[in-house]
Design goal:
- By secondary structure, the chain is of the alpha+beta class.
- The relative contact order is 0.09.
- The protein has two domains: 8-160, DD-peptidase/beta-lactamase superfamily (Beta-lactamase); 167-256, Lipocalin (Beta Barrel).
- The strands form four sheets. It has an eight-stranded antiparallel beta barrel with strand order 11-12-13-14-15-16-17-18. The chain has a six-stranded antiparallel sheet with strand order 5-6-7-8-9-10, sandwiched between helices.
- The chain has helices at residues 8-13, 48-59, 72-78, 144-155, 164-175, and strands spanning 21-23, 29-31, 63-64, 67-68, 83-84, 94-95, 100-105, 108-116, 121-127, 131-137, 177-180, 187-193, 196-202, 207-217, 221-228, 231-240, 243-248, 251-256.
Length: 257
């Protein structure tokens, strides 16, 4: 891994370092710089070729090109899940020693880790059938961890949208849009924001914004909820052929296609 660096002076000598960018709240792409000075927590700069060597070493149980780098026993210790992680994509992820572990990625063991420092993002993943993925980007945006899991799922012949994180994303995309009651007397817009939906009701003088939290997801039905005066209020979406219906409070809204 001869193009993998911790120090600024090593990076600056490399003629082909990717320019880092920040994407601001208006979607503008702004040239930036790497925050040198950090080390183990995101401070290693690498590339897909070097990282593919690292992943190959993990797949080969500590060996690369016949050279033993780590013992198999040490890797197996690192790949045990010790504590739960809160950002689950598959559903059973735990944190090992510097690695995130799923024991049931379509019946296989998945080893994965991703991270970002605002201007660079990276993900590596491998599973027990000896296939690995490395993805890197020179800005922060869509989750590379989800990208890596998506690619591995496809390579296994599965539809990643079976997984909860992708199912939610897919349903939220379907629910986005403008909804109105009979005769267009009341209108609301539904927009995605992360894993939530934002419902906006706008009049000539006011704008009301409501956060909808996912609660139940199905192929033809999705239930979200919000809080009103401390009470849980449901927002139910009926996903019918050719249209989407929203039931909220006393209103029945139809999505305008």
């Amino acid at each position: 891994m001869d193009r993998t660096y911790f120090k600024a002076d090593e990076v600056l000598k490399d003629p082909e370092v990717a320019t880092p960018y920040i994407i601001d709240r208006k979607g503008r792409i702004i040239r930036s710089r790497f925050p040198f000075g950090i080390t183990s927590d995101g401070g290693l700069l690498s590339n897909v070729i070097d990282m593919s060597k690292y992943v190959t070493m993990l797949i080969n149980r500590g060996e690369y090109n016949g050279t033993k780098i780590l013992s198999k026993e040490l890797l197996e210790t690192a790949e045990k899940g010790y504590i739960d992680v809160p950002w689950r994509i598959i559903g059973d992820e735990k944190y090992g020693y510097g690695l995130i572990i799923s024991q049931n990625f379509y019946g296989r063991k998945l080893i994965e880790h991703s991270g970002n420092v605002g201007v660079y993002t990276a993900d590596m993943a491998t599973y027990s059938d000896r296939i690995g993925v490395v993805i890197m980007a020179n800005a922060e945006g869509y989750s590379l961890s989800k990208m890596g899991i998506y690619v591995l799922g496809r390579l296994l012949g599965h539809d990643p949208y079976e997984l909860p994180a992708f199912k939610l994303e897919n349903i939220n995309k379907r629910l986005e849009g403008t909804y109105e009651t009979y005769g267009g007397t009341v209108k609301v817009s539904i927009q995605r924001q992360g894993d939530f939906l934002i419902m906006k009701s706008t009049t000539k003088y006011t704008e009301e914004v409501t956060i909808l939290v996912p609660e139940e997801l199905g192929r033809d039905y999705a239930r979200f909820y919000t809080l009103m005066n401390g009470a849980k209020v449901p927002a139910e979406f009926l996903i019918e052929k050719g249209r989407v219906v929203l039931i909220y409070e006393r209103f029945k809204f139809i999505k305008r296609e």
